[in-house]
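Morning!

This is the sequence you dropped in the shared folder:
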Amino acid sequence: MTTVNYETDIVAWANEQAWLVRNKRFELFDIEHIAEKLEDVGKSEQGDTQS
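The structure's back. Tokens below.
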């Protein structure tokens, strides 16, 4: 469980998730929101290459 609310402050949430990665605190990941963001990045990148 993370300490920063994804819905309230996405920038702070992203920074916290990055800290968790760097410190190998995988058990604390916000898995659902991380997966959602990764999918969004993939969709965005796919759209950029089809321009």
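Headline: Residues 4 and 13 are 5 Å apart (CA to CA).

More detail when I'm at my desk.
O.
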